[in-house]
Amino acid sequence: MNCWVMAFVGEHAKSNYDVARRTNTFCVSSSRTPIRRARAGDRVLLYLAGEGFAAEARISSSASSPDGVPRWYSKKTPLWRISIEDVRFFEEPVLYRFPGDGNHPALGFHRYSLTSGFLAIPEDGFEDVLGWSRAGSSSELAEDSPAPEVVANEALSVPPRPSVRSRRSPDSVPSITVDPEREREKRMAGQHALHEGRKRVAMWTVAEMGASLLNLKGVRRYARSRVRAAETTWVSGGRAEERVGEELEKLLPHGFYIFHDVPLRGLGNVDHVVLGPNGFFSVETKSHSGHVTARGGRLARNGRPFEKDFVKQAWSGCYRLREILDAEVAPLLLFTDAFVEGRMAVRGVRVLPLKWTVGEILAPSIRHETGAVKMAVSKLSSNTGCHPSAAPRLA
User: Fold this and answer.
1) Which residues contact 265 (CB under 8 A, 6 or more apart)?
2) 51 and 78 inside one domain
3) pLDDT grade, residue 123 (50/70/90)?
4) CA dihedral (274, 377, 245, 2) positive or negative
5) 343 neighbors 329 (Cβ within 8 angstroms)
6) Region labeled Disordered — which residues (predicted)?
């Protein structure tokens, strides 16, 4: 049996929470949220932003597509609908404030989707959330208020929340230094490329329309070429990163944390960063087609060298990540639509087709302890302002 946290946050948190209480239904609009793996009988905690954990319940049916859009649902069309039962409300909410914006890499909180003002967050053994059996040193609880004794119905007996001073942090959970001036965020695969590409397509489309109205044929042809270039370079690249992101999610059962579109000062973005027990990896994604080979330490497509040095680009991001993590990071270069001739290593960078990615990451014999992996997640999150886009469940 799995345990889940259904957290209501944002501008409409209270109204969405009241709707869930009234209808015994929880809806999400993202196809990426892992709540779709919820099954009947799984246990659930309901978290209301600003108040704390307010109730517990059980899932009465597996996640399924709703028959229609509920009348009360004014946001995006829900893709998943989950029914709950046996809802038991605590006499007083259990105080807990998610550090930062609701993500905590060391304790296992990760924002998967922010839709309609609430989150869906999976959690194995959610007693850890309340601090009953384990708590991280970065957990933030109200020290100036007495710990309320939480009691639901007679059928449910919940231990009181221990004071902050009585809690002990396990050695495997590191302390996290949070930069208060930087708002952390969870970035989706291809986020920057798609945003930039759509912006450029829109800008040059407007320019093309203006040139048509003014009968400027030369300007119109140029604007149209820029639209096609933006679609080819940025939009297709962003979609390729999305495909890689979906492939990397297969690593979650093996204990890997996955970052997407990680910004590095002075270097732009690294498409993906994978941190796990089998090693740390930086991943660059390319959407080029054709036959990719290596000659003289350079990559070529259909026998002709690429205009850009992708190997140098992969190493640039990798070196910066090594400085941040103070650990060995292996660079990977993935081609989503090209035929890659064999398992190539070009100047130390492994060049792979998309379908070999998971196997290549799981192959290394190196093993990192759980504490070392979480420390690396903490360092990268603090330095870049990003949280993992996907993460394993706590054991």
Assistant:
1) none
2) yes
3) very low
4) positive
5) no
6) 138-194
Average confidence score pLDDT of the chain: 68
Whether 264 contacts 314, CB under 8 Å: no
Q: In whole angstroms, how far apart are CA 41 and each of 130, 294, 381?
A: 21, 54, 34
| One domain, residues 74 and 203 | no
Q: Is residue 255 part of a domain?
A: yes
Residues 161 and 195 in one domain: no
Output Rg (C-alpha) for the chain, integer angstroms.
24
pLDDT in tens, 147-201: 333 333 333 333 343 333 333 333 433 333 434 333 444 455 445 555 665 666 6
Q: Are 282 and 270 in contact (CB under 8 A)?
A: yes
What does the block give as tokens for 320? 């910066």
H runs (alpha helix) in the chain: 13-23, 127-130, 191-213, 217-230, 236-248, 310-325, 357-362, 370-384
Is the separation of the CB atoms in 223 and 208 below 8 Å? yes
Number of independent structural domains in the chain: 2
- DSSP code per residue over 63-123: -B--SS--TT--SSPPSEEEEEEEEEEEEEEE--B-STTT-BTTTTB-----BTTEEEEE-
**CATH number of the domain residue 25 falls in:** 3.10.590
Residue in the block written with tokens 């690429």? 306
What is the pLDDT at residue 331? 92
